[in-house]
Amino acid sequence: YGSIISSLVYVRNTTELTELEEKSFKSARIYLDTNTIFSALGFHTEEMKQSATELLDLITSAGLELWAFEFTVDEICGFFRAYASEGHKYPSGIKVDFVLSNFKQKGLGLSDINEMVVKIEHTLNDIGIRVDPTPDVSLKDYQSPSEVLQGRVSAEKTEKPLTSINHDIAAIDYIRKFRRGNVRSIEDPKAIFLTADNSLNR
């Protein structure tokens, strides 16, 4: 059921959003992907920020909780640290479709980046996102208990770095673990991974 919501991250005023709002959800957790969080924090375009904010408001009004896995926060901080070492490669006046370039366009300096890393959990809490501890997950060497899942996601994302691939595999594993079996009703999903990555909806 993740795809029911995930494809709507940057869409507004659709019949699907109306239907979602009218659903009578039981208590459930919505786990946010890295790019969804970056949009909500304003590190993409203003339109994407507005769309993400409206969607998250809609989700909470439907009675669902906003969460991020700790390893998703690790990935976010990984982008911040990459910018600290590679930000000089992105010209201020040239916009590139990559989050590190967006940091540059917003005029972020090293002190800003370091502060965001230190305060990331507080920043997420300020927009209603709680962090779920996942101390057993290392994005550098995560291995799924499902070889099939590991192979399928890796094959879909050959151009992505290993840590990004492992992040998505871990997210799917943890959502499956949280659900503890098949969910037959969208009103009782237990957990949903909210992502703009269409390859994870297949």
Topology:
Elements: H1 2-6, H2 15-22, E1 28-32, H3 34-40, H4 46-61, E2 64-69, H5 70-86, H6 99-105, H7 110-126, E3 130-132, H8 147-156, H9 162-179, E4 191-194
Parallel strand pairs: 1-2, 1-4, 2-3
Q: What is the strand tally?
A: 4
What is the rounded Rg? Answer: 17 Å
Helix content: 40-55%
Classification by helices and strands? alpha/beta
Number of helices: 9
Order of helices and strands: HHEHHEHHHEHHE
Q: Which assembly state applies to the chains in this document?
A: single chain
* Major beta sheet summary: 4 strands, parallel
With strands numbered from the N-terminus, the spatial order across the biggest sheet is 3-2-1-4
Q: Overall pLDDT, averaged?
A: 81
- Dominant shape: globular
Strand content: 5-15%
Low-confidence stretches: 1-14
First-last Cα distance: 11 Å
Features:
about 200 residues; 9 helices; globular; disordered N terminus
Structure description:
- The chain is α/β, with parallel strands linked by helices.
- Helix content is 52%, strand content 9%.
- The protein is built from nine helices and four strands, in the order H-H-E-H-H-E-H-H-H-E-H-H-E.
- It has a four-stranded parallel sheet with strand order 3-2-1-4, with helices on both faces.
- The longest helix is centred in the C-terminal third of the chain and has 18 residues.
- The termini are close together.
- The N terminus is likely disordered.
